[in-house]
């Protein structure tokens, strides 16, 4: 049973657990208890028990532990300020603070109290307020004999390179001796040591983790031989008993007939006759397991009797595997190697500090060490206790458990345990809660308005177990102290909780939900700021400001979507949770070009590349002037020569600042979109370059360093993007980073987004388990824990607001299928409102309506999807300038067109976008749905952005490097960086790296593999002049000369003339012939068969890709005619390849060779002549 905590009556000894709900004054309470310990204060409580500690303590005897350096600094500052405030109160004999006023009444000797507090204030720089790692480091160092710690050690803040080296050593020791068959199997799982490190990193960072099933001393070779023997036995029986298999299953089992049945037999037969020793089983094999056959047996049929069916049952129930053995052996061996390497180098990492102190306390000298630590720190207060892990709790329980003469005060809120990804463990908190009998709560919310507190209370009271683990994490409604002010809009008090509901459709996919809610949120913020300018929006008597508004998101990609939506309406914002590296920014890549030009000012290509960067902001006319004006060009060469001399004389930082000033880049950048962000990045990079230059030998070494850094990225603290503005802008922040903070107004636009757990990591009693068999129990428990943490995240998000909160709700559904039921019950907000019940959109709508009826201050409505005009600030500045509306008529008889404009009947408005390199218009029109849990090229996200990313991989990563398996360790991080840059989960890097190699190794023609092509040009841009071309005329030529086009739909564009612009993904030469190649990311299905034969041709026709390759062939024809002196289209034109990437390498390759007659007819048509 929990008791309400009274700061001046709380017992200051023994083990005590304090549960502090959001906004209830946790830090204020810690500071109050700290004052009592300094003063030795402790009157009897209501039951007559003494509450004081044995004696007054100094600041060096009171240990306060928290989890980050920032939190430590804040806590130290708050305690210092409270001590100062209390000392002045004792000197004056009065205080307006109720707690201090009561303390004055209960402490008789004010002068003595003031002296104690003055001594404490002077000693605060020595106060024992530490991070947990800082505490461990001090204890090991100051008790080196008892702890067995080395006297002189180097502390490693980043041990990632050490981990990679240890994994590489293990790789060589265990993988190199493997035979060809085993090596091939291993490389299917991990292409490089870096990939293996990613797989075991969770274990290395969490030594408490147990992997299931456990393995003994079995070798990789023994396991491989045993598993391959199982596979070989089934293969042999299949080959031997094929006739009996047919006799016992065909027609006797439901749906075991026809083409599907023959297809199953064919796939399994290919596998059974193959010599490959692989671990992958053909998908149809499970259909011949005995349980499956019996389940589908026709009524009255004879049960299949072949022993083979039992063997198949055993094989598919426990598929052949070696990854579990490798992971456990690797984790164990890498941990051992790292420990040895650090000991030999006298080094310690963060994890060593905890581990070494934990082991020391459990050693024979542990009791002596415990006595020394308890003698030093009589009281330990653990702030944010809900974020502890088992090892951390074990250390403090070992020190203070069962010790009544000392005190262990554990202060936290289990409802805010949201850092599981960092190793924090809510189950450790639950274990402590069960072990400690004295529980206290802080039950009054001082942060939020009364209606908002009431709304949050009501929401969490809807479910019987709002945090899943009801007995261990109960929800106790808090009282509202109540704010006297409120948000007023147009003279009326605004609702505390506004629930937007997109209920027009039975279900909505995640992409549409995100887009609509981002736009709705931006529009509502626009409305609020507009009202504020009109004097119609205020908090109390203070006008509402942009800095009063926060938008909370889960991920960086959500933050970017939100920032773009705000920017489109002229609303400046700042993303406060950006952990991306500045070395991965556009500015880093452009500064690399600029530095290259500075070192090579006479290299025309290098100098033009630098001038074309967005940092210089030169338009086409200005760039063209360099070609026409020789004096201008010579002056620019001289300017960059001056930069080179300045770089060598005073350093790269001074040179880049001089360039900034001379070219007036600051003003230019600030005038553009996201200007503050870009200028901040430029200056940040200049400082990083100056710092790196001090450790490198010369300008060329610095250039190499930047080239490698932009390729590999970096996550060192000094490389993380800096805050671009200190202005009071709309704040975008992740829920994780918002914890502990408050904002007057809060928007939660994407609160219905969720991601189901696909990692079988779960907890059982005091154990953390990773089940590599992916059992149903493990996955179910992992999903339950995922939902529990999402509920805690929701609690954190809903308790950040002071006056008003907006929620974006919709009947979101992921995946395919015709069901009208939503996925809302899997989300935290849906779990509460629908009480965990699965249902259709109406269920959520009814729950919202009931909430609005029963709870004051809650309203439900549809968000406004209207797009207002961009906001212009009060100084006349506009983030997105408004232009005068044009009312005249533009002649369109001559314009630049593209394949996409000809293949659709789209408006003139679309034409410029469709000619953008890397943009796949057809992919943009696909309706992308959320990916399936298992990562594969089929489940990679769909749509325009994923399509552009796949194109980028083939453009930016050299073919030879990507195809070489030995280089995958280098390729995977580059792929991950591109994924992160474009807002995708970097975990996809392993799928995409492997697929990139597979595509490049696919045989397109006998002897032709793309990865082996040396002579190629990516993103070839072309402009073709064209006379007046009509859809009818173009169709007539295509249908007459191309059999595929003869089956297609007619074109529907209006007549055009002017220029045809386009970008060919790849042009390459092979054996004297030239080919056009285009990458397509279209999703046609989840099987390679969906990307072959008629299905592939239909996709070509559906998107008018036949027109595309005809136009590209014409462009290549004209290019070669100009470039090759002996050009003969019959001899030099090789044809076209369309690579449907999701179907490769098994299928997905479309090849055609447009006839010479077609090429000549198109040439004539576009020249304005009559086609032959």
Automatic annotation (TrEMBL):
| Keyword set, alphabetical order | ATP-binding, DNA damage, DNA repair, DNA-binding, Exonuclease, Helicase, Hydrolase, Isomerase, Magnesium, Metal-binding, Nuclease, Nucleotide-binding
What is the primary gene name for this protein?
recB
Positions contributing to Mg(2+) binding: 951, 1065, 1078
Cofactor(s) of this protein: Mg(2+)
Residue intervals of the UvrD-like helicase ATP-binding domain: 1-449
Tell me which residues make up the UvrD-like helicase C-terminal domain.
450-740
Q: What is the scientific name of the source organism?
A: Aeromonas diversa CDC 2478-85
How would you summarize the oligomeric state and partners of this protein?
A: Heterotrimer of RecB, RecC and RecD. All subunits contribute to DNA-binding. Interacts with RecA.
- Sequence segments annotated as region (DNA-binding and helicase activity, interacts with RecC): 1-834
Give a GO molecular function annotation for the protein. Answer: 3'-5' DNA helicase activity
State what protein this is by name.
RecBCD enzyme subunit RecB
Q: What is the recorded function of this protein according to its Swiss-Prot or TrEMBL entry?
A: A helicase/nuclease that prepares dsDNA breaks (DSB) for recombinational DNA repair. Binds to DSBs and unwinds DNA via a highly rapid and processive ATP-dependent bidirectional helicase activity. Unwinds dsDNA until it encounters a Chi (crossover hotspot instigator) sequence from the 3' direction. Cuts ssDNA a few nucleotides 3' to the Chi site. The properties and activities of the enzyme are changed at Chi. The Chi-altered holoenzyme produces a long 3'-ssDNA overhang and facilitates RecA-binding to the ssDNA for homologous DNA recombination and repair.
> Which miscellaneous remark does the UniProt record hold?
In the RecBCD complex, RecB has a slow 3'-5' helicase, an exonuclease activity and loads RecA onto ssDNA, RecD has a fast 5'-3' helicase activity, while RecC stimulates the ATPase and processivity of the RecB helicase and contributes to recognition of the Chi site.
Per the UniProt record, which EC number(s) apply here? 3.1.11.5, 5.6.2.4
* Region (Nuclease activity, interacts with RecD and RecA) residue spans: 893-1172
Sorted alphabetically, which InterPro entries does this protein's record hold? DNA_helicase_UvrD-like_C, DNA_helicase_UvrD/REP, P-loop_NTPase, PDDEXK-like_dom_sf, PDDEXK_AddAB-type, RecB, Restrct_endonuc-II-like, UvrD-like_ATP-bd
Annotated active site: 1078
Instruction: Tell me yes or no: is Isomerase among this UniProt entry's keywords.
Output: yes
